[in-house]
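FORM 12-B: Structure-to-Sequence Request
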């Protein structure tokens, strides 16, 4: 059965206006959603990405360059990901449709993972 990756896109924003209780409530929603998928045997993994840090790797031919990123000036970042198992895109969309990320103004890029034979 194919795996699908949910890339969680979001606008960069300052979450400092959220109280610790609000942040905990949002985290609890994500945990409950992923636990529901786990109970169905559909979740394969997922993580939140750190808000700061990271590197951009650029290459072409024998040239290679590393820069810091993502930058605060970025309007959009990938905040995390989940990997799920589904029969096809229709089931993957159905499983993803109540992802809490959609509730908070983010959007989900849904991509089928192509096996590499490893």
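FORM 12-B RESPONSE
SEQUENCE OUT:
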């Amino acid at each position: 059965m194919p795996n699908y990756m949910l890339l969680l896109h979001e606008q960069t924003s300052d979450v400092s206006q959220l109280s610790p209780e609000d942040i905990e409530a949002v985290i609890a929603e994500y945990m409950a959603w992923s636990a529901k998928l786990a109970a169905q045997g559909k979740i394969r993994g997922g993580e939140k990405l750190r808000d700061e840090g990271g590197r951009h790797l650029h290459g072409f031919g024998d040239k290679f360059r590393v820069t810091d990123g993502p930058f605060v000036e970025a309007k959009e970042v990938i905040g995390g990901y989940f990997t799920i198992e589904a029969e096809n895109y229709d089931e993957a969309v159905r499983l993803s449709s109540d992802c809490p990320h959609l509730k908070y103004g983010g959007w989900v890029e849904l991509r089928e993972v192509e096996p590499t034979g490893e």
